[in-house]
Amino acid sequence: MLNMRLAPRVVNLKPSVTVAFMNRAKTMKAQGLDVLSFAAGEPDFDTPQKIKDAAIQALQAGQTKYMPTMGDAQTRQVIADKFERENGIRGLTPEHIGISSGGKHALYVVCHVLFDIPEPGQPAWECVLPVPAWVSYAPIVELAGGRVVEVPTTVETGFKATAAQIRAAITPQTRMVVLNSPSNPCGTMYTPDELRQIARVCDEAARTIAPDLVILSDELYEKIIYGGIEHFSIGSVPEVAERTVTLNGLSKAYGMTGWRVGYTCMPGAFGLKLTSAMATLQGQMSTNITSFVYPAIRTALTECAAEVEEMRRAFAGRAEVANARLARIPGVKNARATGAFYAFPDVSSYFGAVSPGGRKINSALDLCEALLAEALVAFVPGEDFGGCGARHVRISFACGEAQINAGIDRFEAFLGALRRG
Ligand code: PLP
């Protein structure tokens, strides 16, 4: 073996705990074990046929060559219209829209355009991040040279940061404030009023101490809502519209995780500058997304409301089962899920216990390890989501109600069989 090194930047990257548990559940299933997996953050629904047909037709028609880096004007216009019609974000032209290979890639490109490695002796630009949060925000911001400033939240307040907390975390170094509603991993949502209050403090802070502040609103789960809270885009608030990047994609709402489509908008003159810089970066990175996918994006955004609604209803039914069942388990504290397809209960009252198989449960990771090994149920331990996540497990209910009931039966029985250590 040659004695060569890898870049420390990458060596120090933490692999995704979600993927680790998902893969372990898959391996155990392949060995014939009856594992019930609640680990994957992807809908179990297939992509609607109309969307597949649009891509197949484009492929057969020969749309197989390079295209403009950020997407063709027609598709970018369809996305601009979607943001205006559904999200109330005005003043967008195709040049304000970026299309990347998934929401994650879009976020990566945005972060590399907004952050930089600090000059020696200079402080890093900061990213204000309410936690628990999706596991990829921190690594992506840090790879771009930013420093994450966590804003802690709790299960009691539905894992939502208050406007006052966000304001207190903003400094002259603040470059980005990340908001994710509905939330992965928490399954909760900010109300329109809460987002307006956050917009107000961001606007005030930007005018006084943080002129470079950009709000990054991750709305990947906007279509999967069922708890009576309306989805609201902070980018529609006029005072912050031109300092807000709204991030979305087709993965979650359309059953299209494998297609890799993400997109962004930011109105105004800076939005044009940002999107053009994103094009320069992406042009040296991956160029455009797969060419024959563009017509599929247009079909998804203009012709698939009924299919999306059908999936939303299924998620609503599943959430009702998960919410009701988790609320009845002794020692488990859960914030009612109102969006996305996750529950994120606090299981810390069981820390210190010992499993029937003799495993000591001192953390969410221990609990998930024992649950998988002894009850064949895969949840994701909450440590890597940050903040109070270390006391929680993430349950993705992107599966049928029968599996949810069976999984929670096993979880409940497993907890009931724990002995105090
Ligand atoms: N944002 C959130 C909150 C997510 O949970 C995910 C995926 O899990 C993404 C963005 C990125 O999704 P994709 O890259 O599939 O568009």
What does this structure look like?
- This protein is an alpha/beta fold and 421 residues long.
- It has two domains: 8-46 and 306-415, Aspartate Aminotransferase, domain 1; 65-302, 3-Layer(aba) Sandwich (Aspartate Aminotransferase, domain 2), CATH 3.40.640.10.
- Helices cover 40% and strands 13% of the residues.
- The protein has a seven-stranded mixed sheet, sandwiched between helices. It has a three-stranded antiparallel sheet with strand order 9-14-13. Strands 11-10-15 form a three-stranded antiparallel sheet.
- Strand 3, helix 6 (137-143) and strand 4 (147-152) form a beta-alpha-beta unit.
- It starts with 7 loop residues before the first helix and ends with a strand.
- Bound molecules: pyridoxal-5'-phosphate (PLP).
Q: Biggest β-sheet: count, sense, barrel? A: 7 strands, mixed
Helix coverage percent: 40-55%
Report the span from N to C terminus: 45 Å
Quote the beta fraction: 5-15%
Count of beta strands: 15
Shape: globular
Overall average pLDDT: 97
Unreliable stretches (pLDDT < 50, length at least 5) are none
Stated plainly, the CATH topology of the largest domain is called Aspartate Aminotransferase, domain 2
